[in-house]
Amino acid sequence: MLGACSAISVPVTSNFPSIPESLNKDCGPLQIIGKPEVKLSELVTTVTINYEKYHECSAKLEAWREWYNEQKRIFNNIK
Q1: CA gap 20, 71 in Å, rounded
Q2: First vs last Cα of the chain: how many Å apart?
Q3: Could you give the count of Cα atoms lying within 13 Å of 15 in the half-sphere of its Cβ?
Q4: Less packed terminus of the chain by CB within 10 Å, N or C?
């Protein structure tokens, strides 16, 4: 009786998980200067903050997407 049970096979498939929405968001808005006249020091500070924020976020997103796509490729090649 026990031998008959082992002859039945059920295929098991698994899918690579999709990217969670919280990790697939854009970097968000940059700082703006909301007044018509601004000191040069304020302008330079805002530009510097935005430049840093954009490049840091862009690097993190690119690294994350590259890692995810590589893991997905490996997972799909194992099947």
Answers
A1: 15
A2: 32
A3: 3
A4: N
pLDDT at 6 over 80: no
Using alpha carbons, list the distances in angstroms from residue 48 to 11, 60, 63: 56, 18, 23
pTM exceeds 0.70 for this model? no
Task: Locate 77 and state its tokens.
Answer: 């090649």
Structure tokens at 27: 């970097």
**Domain locations in the chain as residue ranges:** 32-79
What's the mean pLDDT when you consider all of the chain?
85
The radius of gyration of the chain from alpha carbons, rounded to an integer in Å, stands at: 25
Question: Which of 6-10, 21-25, 54-58, 65-69 shows the lowest per-residue confidence on average (mean pLDDT)?
Answer: 6-10
